[in-house]
């Protein structure tokens, strides 16, 4: 269902007119109330009134994660703290956390954006909705929560963790929708199987999954394991939280950006110059309606492409591709760029392999090496008694190694473990263990 047809099916000209007027208001606001932005605009010798078209945005300076850290905790707020009704923060596993803030108006707009996103992904008023995103400083739990209520659906605010209880609640409350990270929702499905339940027989019809990179192959796996339709939801706390973009139920092919609130660009991460539609690069967002924590040309570190082609659902909102990976997570192994999702894609082509994996990176001699750790499926494990000397196991190892090598273009190590060996996630999965820099684990 299209909740805001006048926006979601607007002509490009109308949308761009709205974006330009909101961009100018946002720039005036940050110029007046955030010293960091005033200084960086002054340094670039540009005033908010110099912006006459959306193309002029390339004249504005970028904002980076380090700018948020440097102004920790409240230095980038465009309102006084009395006007803030909520804070969120990143987990801050590396350095200071990044703090973001919302006014009452921001929270109301966010709830509406998420409600619209949920409707786009097939949710309806009257649905029961199991929200397995973590509640707390992370934006996933509360961000989805208020959007579900705003839509008129009933939220079951389970949060992450206690997976056996999640299964019981799904059995008892019979929700139509579920949200969580793809890795955690898969973990819930696995728990159902461990408890002797058939994950395909639940009341669930759709999943709204995101907050971590996942491949098309993992979507197929989740859809068939749970017999649901799985839509990708994207967002980041610096820009708002979940709901910046979402896939539609009809096409499941690219995520519609809430363009009336966020202006998207793709740049070449090396040169910082714009790249054409359809080409991959770093996503950059400018907020157009935020009061407490506006961001100007925020470099997300996420790799995607943009698409302006019409969509089967009738929405005209631009689509971004699924996130290929984060620049932070891009491994450069002997000169070749590798994203964990590319490894995931290869692993999931093998029925004998379960969808749980981790990649370790080490520095051996003068070379960086990559080792893929994955698991056999429980069925394969049941049938092949003598891992790893069973010829079927040896053949699997050989074929998988060959596929990884030919798909990634580099030689990698491979360890195939027994079922249940790889740590399961209750939120964002940790796919990379980087031993090259001591204590830096992503
Ligand atoms: O992960 C917000 C969110 C919550 C999005 C629930 C979707 C659902 P942060 O914790 O600030 O916010 O992390 C943001 O997570 O820059 C991406 O690298 C990654 N990410 C978020 N959504 C997706 C997605 C939330 N659909 C960072 N696909 C972002 C791939 C995603 N990566």
Summarize the structure.
This protein has helices at residues 5-8, 12-33, 35-43, 65-70, 104-120, 139-151, 163-173, 182-194, 216-226, 340-347, 378-383, 391-408, and strands at 86-89, 99-102, 128-131, 154-156, 177-180, 206-210, 229-236, 241-247, 255-257, 262-267, 281-287, 298-304, 306-307, 319-320, 325-326, 331-333, 336-338, 353-364, 367-376, 413-417, 432-434.
Question: What does the model show?
Answer:
The chain is built from twelve helices and 21 strands. The protein has 442 residues and is α/β, with parallel strands linked by helices. The longest helix is centred in the first third of the chain and has 22 residues, at 12-33. It folds into two domains: 1-325, ANL, N-terminal domain (Rossmann fold), CATH 3.40.50; 331-441, ANL, C-terminal domain (GMP Synthetase, Chain A, domain 3, 2-Layer Sandwich), CATH 3.30.300.30. The strands form five sheets. Strands 4-3-5-6-7-8-9-14-13 form a nine-stranded mixed sheet, with helices on both faces. α2 packs across α3 (35-43). Residues 90, 133, 138-140, 143, 210-213, 232-237, 241-242, 300, 302, 323, 326 line the site of 5'-O-[hydroxy(phenylacetyl)phosphoryl]adenosine.
């Amino acid at each position: 269902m299209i909740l805001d047809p006048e926006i979601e099916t607007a002509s490009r000209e109308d949308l761009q007119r709205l974006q330009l007027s909101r961009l100018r208001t946002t720039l005036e606001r940050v110029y007046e109330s955030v010293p960091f932005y005033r200084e960086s605009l002054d340094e670039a010798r540009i005033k908010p009134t110099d912006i006459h078209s959306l193309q002029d945005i390339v004249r504005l300076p970028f904002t980076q994660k380090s700018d948020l850290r440097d102004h920790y905790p409240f230095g980038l707020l465009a309102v006084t703290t009395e006007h803030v009704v909520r804070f969120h923060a990143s987990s801050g596993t590396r350095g200071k956390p990044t703090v973001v803030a919302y006014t009452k108006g921001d929270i109301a707009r966010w709830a509406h954006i998420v409600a619209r996103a949920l409707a786009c992904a097939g949710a309806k008023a009257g649905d029961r909705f199991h929200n397995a995103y973590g509640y707390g400083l992370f934006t996933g739990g509360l961000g989805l929560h208020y959007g579900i209520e705003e839509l008129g659906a009933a939220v079951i605010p389970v949060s992450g963790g206690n997976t056996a209880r999640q299964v019981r609640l799904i059995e008892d409350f019979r929700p139509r929708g579920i949200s969580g990270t793809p890795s955690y929702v898969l973990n819930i499905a696995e728990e159902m199987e461990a408890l002797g339940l058939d994950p395909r027989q639940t009341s669930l019809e759709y999943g709204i999954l995101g907050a971590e990179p996942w491949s098309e192959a993992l979507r197929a796996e989740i859809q068939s394991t749970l017999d649901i339709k799985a839509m990708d939801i994207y967002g980041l706390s610096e820009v708002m939280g979940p709901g910046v973009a979402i896939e539609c139920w009809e096409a499941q092919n690219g995520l519609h950006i809430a363009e009336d609130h966020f202006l998207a660009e793709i740049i070449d991460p090396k040169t910082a110059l714009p790249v054409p539609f359809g080409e991959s690069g770093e996503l950059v967002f400018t907020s157009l309606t935020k009061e407490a924590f506006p961001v100007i040309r925020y470099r997300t570190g996420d790799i995607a492409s943009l698409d302006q082609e019409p969509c089967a659902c009738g929405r005209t909102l631009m689509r971004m591709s699924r996130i290929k990976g984060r620049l932070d997570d891009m491994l450069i192994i002997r000169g070749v760029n590798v994203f964990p999702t590319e490894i995931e894609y290869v692993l999931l082509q093998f029925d004998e392999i379960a969808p749980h994996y981790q990649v370790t990176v080490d520095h051996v001699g003068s070379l960086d090496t990559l080792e893929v750790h994955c698991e056999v499926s429980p069925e394969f494990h049941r049938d092949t008694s003598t891992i790893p000397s069973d010829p079927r196991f040896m053949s699997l190892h050989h074929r998988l190694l060959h596929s990884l090598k030919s798909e990634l273009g580099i030689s990698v190590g491979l360890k195939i473990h027994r079922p249940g060996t790889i740590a399961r996630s209750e939120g964002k999965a940790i796919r990379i263990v980087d031993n090259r820099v001591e204590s830096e684990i992503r």
